[in-house]
Design a protein that fits this description.
Elements lengths: L5 H13 L12 H13 L6 H12 L3 H5 L3 H11 L5 H11 L2
Helix pairs in contact: 1-6
Length: 101
Amino acid sequence: MRNLGFSDVFKVARILKKLDVKMDIQPGMTQEQLGGQMMLRAAENLGNAEAEVTEFVASMKGISKEEAEKMSFGDLVDFLEEFKKLPDIQRFFSSVSKLMK
């Protein structure tokens, strides 16, 4: 998986907006807590951003959109586990949440 880049801030902000996710980042929040909060809030409206999420996953993994669409549930879980452990993930979502206000 590649590292997060500048353009990813805008991609994720658009996805979270479609998912109607409002990030509530608290000081001292761990990466696991942040990831869990995001997943719970996003699951409810995931279908609203299916294309954008698929494209983002493909981009992060360096695969085609078609390959991302064929990922197994286990592969998706592995991706999410790896994603929430990326360096600076909390700072990344802090930046995203500021753009969404």
